[in-house]
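JOB MANIFEST
job_type = single_chain_structure
chain_count = 1
residues = 236
[input]
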Amino acid sequence: MFFDSSYMLLIVVGLIITGIPQLLVKSTFTKYSKIKSEKRTTGAQVAKFLLNDAGIYNVTVEFIQGELTDHYDPTAKVLRLSESVYSSDSIAAIGVAAHEAGHAIQDNKGYVPMKLRSGIFPAVMFGQNLGPILIMVSLGLQAFMHLSGLTTLIALIGIALYGAVVVFQIVTLPVELNASNRAMHALVNGGYLTHEEAGGARNVLNAAAMTYIAAALYAILQILYYVWLLFGRNRD
């Protein structure tokens, strides 16, 4: 009942929307991973240099296993770089490392969208699982017990919970784009990359940005589908 053709279409569209940017990231990163930077500084070195340039001395740079598992942990004040970034002196590695350093700089300066994203993260972890469950429960009550009042209340709670996921994905966009802009500005102004090399690093970061745009778009489509399922189709 719940997994009808419209739901399957949503899944297929979601796979396309999110899958293509992921392939683009991998191909772009692979391309620029083969191009060494003129100064031959590694991703870890560049990250440390950029943090020092910004007057940040309480953030450590660590190695982490995996491919493109790079991230900044604002709670632990740790910038973790993956195998293909930490010790690599490629343009791609330097771009990714600088991007993560950009997040550390955001944290240091109290960048509001980043603080907002961190603040709603617990609600996101709660809502992304419970929200869809409540929506399915409301559909069941509506179909088999005809409890319209209770159904509406449960549905609204479910949509509100999943709405936190949508807000998180939308707020993530300015956080990621700003981190990339900070990264490119610091790399060029600090002389860590030439202007030509910076173009390659920018291509890598732009490809990564597409994955966040895709995730936000798919989250919006999902919540619109849930609203239609509960308050549109079932009132026809």
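[summary]
The CA atoms of residues 10 and 108 lie 39 Å apart.
The chain has seven helices and three strands.
exit_status = 0
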